[in-house]
Amino acid sequence: MSKGFREVDAYQARITRDGMRNDLVQNYTESDHSAPYWLDVLTEAEQGSSDFVGDDTERVFPFVCDHFDPKDQPSYQLYRCHRDVVSSDMISQTSVDKLQRELVEQIRGQLNSQYRINVSSEQILLTQGREQALTLLADELVSESSVVALENPGRAVYQTVFQQSKAQVQWVDVDQDGLTIGDALNGSNIVCVTPSSHYPTSVTMSLNRRQALLEQASEQGFYIIEDMCETDTHFLDQALPLLHRLDAHDRVISVGCLSSSTAPQLDVGYILAPKEMIARLSDRQPTTDCNALSMAITTQFLALGYYDNHIRRVRHTMEQKWLAMLSALECHMPDYPYYATPGSTCFLLTLPQTLDCHTLITRAAMEGIVLQADNVRLNSASGQPRVVLGFGAINIDDIEAGIMKLKPLITTLCQPM
């Protein structure tokens, strides 16, 4: 069985936590509370099939990405911030402009403390999450003659946004060091990249590749859009510097957002760019789409240190879940190759050639197992079926049981009819 790039070998399931950290740090140095959407998936499965097993689905196995177990969210701290904002009548007494300025100042502090990025408030524009930020950038930077380089594989939202803007999309492969550069980027006007824990392969772009990408951007004059939305949940102690921190020629535009582990309903994001570009973007969108209450609550949540404490807990939880996923896959599905690197939020599982992913997802939902296929763009010539196994939303005690339940389902679907 051939292994994929940076695929975790079997021995890693047996190494200690500290051993894993030491090996990886050395390697990287060198080179409103709505119900989770997966409940809707299960409801659709129940309505669409008489084979739906009602008793089993009382125990749900959500192997989904960009979602976290509601029990891991800082509900009490958010409630306190909401209570303080409402009781102080802050919304009616404070202008929207002032709320924006206060939130921007808190985000500036986070960028400095977490990533050692020192910027002015004129370099930050608030948005409503990742997609709204990308749409705004596409409106500003893209014309019908623009060529936009996207990661292959990568998030479907990038393809959706830039194809809607009439740009020419150019797919660029991701290897063991991240997005490939050189000739693959020739002719590009914009390059979109996720250097820290790429989705869905979980590859981290090497320092040499980051520096070479920045050098090529400076020489050829293209912009780099850096996705840093999930960087704060990366559980490794030592992370490589973001492209924005390394950029000396104002070629990097970063898109960030508060972790979805906090409160997806707030959906606060931001664009980090040279102040001249922020000024142009502001002219396109004079006021942010973030509502006043969300901004006030988020500002309080950051100012009181709740976010920092929450992220520390999330990183610990995600590390334990990552190890549980690794152990379960090695124990119960050893013949199925997968891509994963410590610090990632998902495992990319390669399936037998004869298996149809959409059939698997439908049948899995009937068994209470929720998988995703609509949030990743796989532009693979081999056509090898793969499925993304996220683990942020699932209870750690359910991970092994979910993998054990998924294995026989895959085996059954691969058998000839």
From TrEMBL:
What InterPro entries does UniProt report for this protein, alphabetically?
A: HTH_trans_reg/aminotransferase, PyrdxlP-dep_Trfase, PyrdxlP-dep_Trfase_major
Annotated signal sequence range: none
**Which CDD domains does the entry link to?**
AAT_like
Question: Under what name is this protein listed?
Answer: HTH-type transcriptional regulator TauR
What is the scientific name of the source organism? Answer: Vibrio hippocampi
